[in-house]
Amino acid sequence: MSAPTPEPLPQALREQIAAQLGDAKPATDKVLTSLAASVADRRAHEHPTWEDLYCLNLVSWAGERMAPVLRRLLDAEAEVTRLRAALSAAADDVVERDDEIADWSAKNAALRAELRQRLSRAADKAEKDTLRGESTPATGSAQRRAFLLDRIRSERGQWTPGRVKRLYRRVWPEQHVLRATIRADLAQLHSDGHLTLHDAGDRRFYTLAEANA
């Protein structure tokens, strides 16, 4: 069974040990491994320390190298403290970011719900106007594209998503038609052969196809 991992030394205790060590430099890997080997030799030796000069020499040798070893220990303890603080700060950042994402998602869901309600009200109004025989066209995708094609045939010229958006806004002031929907309407009319696409590099627009002129 492995020994439990000890907690890092308190900062005050590390400062106290550092003051006692003076200008001792951190131990190198070679010093650490040789010290470990000497400790193993000392523990495996069966003669009492006071009867064995060799063991006394080992103890003296180890003592001379304890300051660099302790200095390296202090550096390791300080690094552990720094990494734990960084990990805690990162965890706090993750929690804060999760909260921001949750808030954004809630706001986005509310906006989407409001948009759906507005579109639904506009569609209901258009349907009622159609049933009453009024001139406002229905806002279904097929009917909307048919209405757009009729306007393009009557007005001619160059048609961009911005121009179509202004047209839709005049016709359906209570309905917000997304630019993606407008681009899809133009692309569908182009795919059906009603429009011709012109790509001028920094500007794309549509005109009525010659077959429909």
Key traits:
single chain; 213 residues; mainly alpha; Arc Repressor Mutant, subunit A; 2 domains; two-stranded antiparallel sheet; 7 helices; 2 strands; rod-shaped
Biggest sheet character:
2 strands, antiparallel
- Strand sequence of the main sheet, in spatial order? 1-2
Q: What is the domain total for the residues? A: 2
Number of helices: 7
Strand tally: 2
| Helix content range | 55-70%
Backbone CA Rg: 40 Å
Mean pLDDT, all residues? 77
- Low-confidence segments, given as residue ranges, are 133-138
Describe the structure.
- By secondary structure, the protein is mainly α.
- The chain has two domains: 9-27 and 65-136; 137-212, Arc Repressor Mutant, subunit A (Orthogonal Bundle), CATH 1.10.10.
- It contains seven helices and two strands.
- It has helices at 11-21, 29-44, 53-64, 66-131, 141-155, 161-171, 179-191; strands spanning 195-199, 204-208.
- The radius of gyration is 40 Å and the shape is rod-shaped.
- The termini are far apart.
Secondary structure: elements and pairs:
Layout: H1 11-21, H2 29-44, H3 53-64, H4 66-131, H5 141-155, H6 161-171, H7 179-191, E1 195-199, E2 204-208
Antiparallel strand pairs: 1-2
Care to give the gist of this entry?
With 213 residues, the protein is mainly alpha-helical. It is 68% helix and 5% strand. Strand 1 (195-199) and strand 2 form a beta hairpin.
